[in-house]
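User: Structure tokens for both sequences below?

Assistant:
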Amino acid sequence: MSRRLIERVLRGASLGAVSLVVACGGSGSSLPIITPFWVSGGIVVSDLDGDGRADVAVARTYVDQPPPHPGYVDVHLQTAPGRFAPLQRYAVAADPWALSVGDIDGDGLPDLLSASPMTTPPQINTVNDSGAVALLRQRNASPGQFETAQVLAVGGVTNDATAADLTGDGRADVLAADGVIVNSRALLLAQLPAANSFATPQPVCTGAGGWSALAVGDIDGDTRSDVAGVGSGTLWWCRGLGGGNFAAPAVIGTGVALVGVALADLDADGRLDLVAADAGNAPSGGLGAAAVRWWRQTMPGVFTVQSQIVADGARHVVVRDLNQDGRPDIAVISTVYQTQANSTWISVLLQSASVTGAFSVAQAWQGPDGGSFLAVGEVTGDGRVDIVVEGPLVYPQSSTATGMFLSGTPLP
């Protein structure tokens, strides 16, 4: 059994009953023998300890037995320009996948939030509703240090989660993307006045099914938080009505297999636009049709779509000014899980200097085996933003060719 096939099992692929047995010598078992290994998930590059330098956090899973597997978040603090302290490892819910940063408790310090799709063993022909999120709150007296994780049972298959004030009470709530198509929902965990307490998960954005990823922002400019989500081939928008209530999902656009989404003002017109990673035919075992697609909001609530073909299996996008020209650019990571060879690619799409909101691929290169997430930040101490992927592995920006990136090296 290939490592890529195992990773698909970890992410909830429907492959039937698969048994993993840890190699321990002399067992004589006819079952597959798997040497324990680590699998990386979501990655965050952010100043976690307030020293002005970008730090790195990565969701990690230790595969040493059949699922569920022990989950962790590894935190790497940048202590001097381009130099990092030994990692700090925090236990979270099983098999963490996505990772995000936000101020969960309102103390002005960034906290971390990991999403675990499933925390109980998968069962054949059974919908698994054991998704969870884990909250890592930063310690007030110890910058960059985190308390023991608070694990919240969410339900569904929690493919993504974020912290944002969705009820309008000034407290950050938790919103989770449910990947179960028949559930057709996101799940809102409203934060309660009592310390570290959240309400029972409530379905929101019902009618939008099979969520792969979500993003929160004021899309329509009415000061209330809206939700954008992707799943299968659809990008939808759930308009915030206030008090944790949302309008029914409105379809903004479609693709082949949209699995990643980001919100950003691409054209500096003051309105949020949407960017999505389209894996193309890769999730169905084929190749082709993978793209980055972006929907510019040309008038309030009116979107026009453009796209750029990229490597098969596009799954996660980040929007950031990569070449220091003041215009947002796009980085995307592509992976075809069912390919046993290394098929991860990273593509950089730079915005045109002459045509606002137009992007083209400026560089594409082969990334690490099995990469699914990337982040952007200055981690080499030279003042230029770099690309960081699971591992963590750093692709430094060239000092002579702005917006171009060099070969990957381990985090310093």
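Moving on to the next sequence.
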Amino acid sequence: METNLNEKNIAVLLSGGVDSSVVVYELASRGLRPDCFYIKIGPEEDTEWDCSSEEDMEMATAVAARYGCRLEVVDCHREYWDRVTRYTMDKVRAGLTPNPDVMCNRMIKFGAFDEKRGHDYDLIATGHYACTEVIDGLKWLTTSPDPVKDQTDFLAQIYDWQLRKALFPIGHYMKGEVRRIAEREHLVNARRKDSQGICFLGKVNYNDYLRRYLGENPGDVVELETGRKIGRHRGLWFHTIGQRHGLGFGGGPWYAVKKDVAANVLYVSHGFEPLTAYKRDFPVHDFHFLTADELPTRATFKIRHTPEFHPATLEHTAPGCFTVHAEELIQGVAPGQFCVIYDEEHHRCYGSGEITC
């Protein structure tokens, strides 16, 4: 964590969960009294679809009061709909695989919040499991020591000015350590379960959400190797590349391996992890740099939120575009996913770009 925090005006994004609550503790233990902000988001006015629950507010209020911090609610409901949910629906409609949580960090937590209140503060502190490090005068996003919880992949699309304002007070901890701190300090939410899935959906099923806004668009399901029609799907947006569970076709297992958006056809492969479900080489475009403006030839990468980093060679094809040549076959590579690039030691995060294969 940065050393000159006493000279900084700090805002904490307090969600009501244990991670952001320990952020407040960490700052308070250093004699600081940051202002706390609860961001209210959701795709529409119907509270059924809003994740800003009454319990979240109760927890956030209790933690802020415990450390003598002011708590303010910032309504980013409309901004979330206009920027994040629209992005998600546009990508899904085009047959791509979006990541709403990535865009939430860029557009809401470090974006809309900064426009509304964060611009009055030097630093914005969050409960992300990530670190920062100044190397040769430049601030880098670096990985957490907890490989399971590391969230640099969710932060790899934030802007450079957002990274310069970002503070991750618990990023150097393992998740278990954060829990132990919360229990030791008798925080009200010390044993509260972590939130799962996409925040704004609350308890709503993702497919039900897609159905509500995009409807259904039935089409054929075809076996890739034989061209044999094996069934019908209700809409390409209900399926992701690499998906095995929930396809609902007999004689499986089946894997979703390709979408033909123009013909509205879902291609599947039969068997246990067929070769068609894997790729070693794939193109990436519109790479978003966090700090440096040049990528190494040798690197590691992620395409989803997993503990594993995959080694690869990057073949540069145009400014902001390159082909990833992975050293191993990668399951479930899908267009629209973000490919996050790290150095060979998977320590420094360079940023991310969109897969186009």
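User: Anything stand out in the second?

Assistant: The first helix runs from residue 18 to 28.
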